[in-house]
Design brief:
The chain is of the alpha+beta class. It contains 17 helices and 6 strands. The strands form 2 sheets. The protein has a 4-stranded mixed beta sheet, sandwiched between helices. Strands 2-6 form a two-stranded antiparallel sheet. β4 and β5 (189-195) form a beta hairpin. This is Zn-dependent peptidase ImmA (M78 family).
Length: 404
């Protein structure tokens, strides 16, 4: 392990600390060294001894060799679907988990063709430039590009993955952050990370639509911590989510005016959108005045409370499929073996399972195979359609694609 010790990458160690939500002091206690020693490791001023290095990798639940790899290019600074009080350490954890997801997708991209990125292009450089009309137009164009029509979207997660978005859904134990979105320069595609801590299919769909709004509207806007700027961008992503999930003309034509909670409960199951979100959409469309919206929210709170609504369990949470089915396809076709994937990545089997949406203990035995992604032949004569049509498997001779 001498080489591994000498080649310890401080950035890898910092990333692992963030992903595990550990402080330097906590890591020091677990490994059995002084906190100052961990600080020196993170600065590159000192390398651990052989036995300590092995213990360090064990505590972090990564392969020792992984700690010696140069860290990859980071994803873009993310937009957070979060409470303003979310801690910096919590945000760092989700960014680190997202970057682990990026590494997984990069490995798979050596073997498969992911769907092409298909998002409306906008070049806003300041949120103040974005009008409500711009948001409505972006939502309408996104529906058109994805060929979703004007009615309810049956499975938004599948639609997003079909448009080239890498989607990860994982339990985080961070209730203040419901998701984040960023762009991967290495993958040349966006990544959305959703929290799975709240098993509410309606809220999860809205969170996903919200992050899609960030990807489209705010791609070229520098992140900032100024509350006013943050709040404006959150409102814009909210508006996009409402416009995307509830198209103005179609949705408005189905709402009985004046509306009430019982009518909206019926529409909730049809559109896959909460009553609260529908009320906000009706207000945005001018179909609910300020006082009417306030009165309706008060009635909602009096009847159901401030968070839960009747029928919240009637819409199944939409799960990501792309990474999971890519793993299944690679294993089924013999491109990669079960034990190869975690070892190649350097992460624990459980990390790969949760980031890819695989069942627990998947890497301990064979799994049922469902095709989705398209394997890329080293002889690739042509590219095939992805996700918008049933996955078609091509020849696996040579497996890895050739360098371009």
């Amino acid at each position: 392990m001498t080489k591994g010790i000498n080649d310890l990458q401080p950035a890898r160690l910092e990333q692992a600390l963030s992903a595990r939500n550990l402080s330097k002091g906590q890591l020091a206690s677990l490994v059995g060294v002084a906190a100052s020693t961990v600080t020196k490791w993170c600065k590159g001023d000192q390398a651990p001894e052989a036995i300590t290095f092995e213990r360090l990798a064990s505590v972090l639940n990564v392969q020792a060799e992984w700690l010696t790899r140069p860290i990859l290019q980071a994803v873009s600074p993310p937009h957070y679907r979060s409470n303003a009080s979310a801690l910096k350490t919590a945000r760092s954890k989700l960014v680190a988990r997202t970057e682990w997801g990026q590494e997984i997708a990069l490995l798979f991209n050596e073997y498969v063709d992911f769907p092409s990125v298909n998002l409306p292009a906008r070049t806003f450089h300041d949120p103040e430039q974005i009008s409500n009309a711009d948001i409505e137009a972006a939502a309408e164009e996104c529906r058109s590009l994805w060929q979703l029509g004007r009615g309810p979207i049956q499975n938004l997660a599948l639609a997003a993955e079909s448009a080239g978005i890498v989607l990860i859904r994982e339990e985080t134990e961070i209730s203040a952050i419901e998701g984040l979105s960023s762009w991967s320069g290495l993958l040349k595609r966006p990544i959305i990370f959703l929290s799975a801590d709240k098993a509410n299919g309606f809220r999860s769909r809205f969170d996903l639509a919200h992050e899609i709004g960030h990807l489209i509207l705010h791609k070229h806007i520098l992140r900032g911590d100024a509350p006013d700027r943050y709040n404006l961008m959150e409102k814009q992503a909210h508006r996009f989510a409402g416009a995307f999930l509830l198209p103005a003309e179609t949705f408005a034509s189905e709402v009985r005016v004046p509306t009430n909670l019982d009518n909206l409960l019926i529409l909730k199951q049809r559109w896959g959108v909460s009553v609260a979100a529908m009320m906000m959409r009706l207000h945005a469309l001018g179909l609910l005045k300020d006082d009417e919206k306030l009165a309706l929210f008060k009635r909602r709170s009096a009847r159901w409370g401030s968070k839960a609504e009747p029928g919240d369990d009637k819409w199944e949470v939409e799960m990501p499929r792309l990474l999971r089915r890519t793993v299944e396809l690679l294993v089924n076709e013999g491109a990669l073996s079960l034990e190869t994937i975690p070892r190649y990545l350097g992460l624990s089997s459980r990390d790969v399972e949760t980031l890819c949406g695989l069942p627990e203990s998947y890497f301990e035995g064979p799994a049922d195979i469902i095709e989705l992604a398209t394997l890329r032949s080293s002889r690739s004569q042509h590219r095939t359609e992805h996700l918008s049509q049933p996955g078609s498997v091509v020849s696996l001779l040579g497996f890895k694609k050739r360098a371009r």
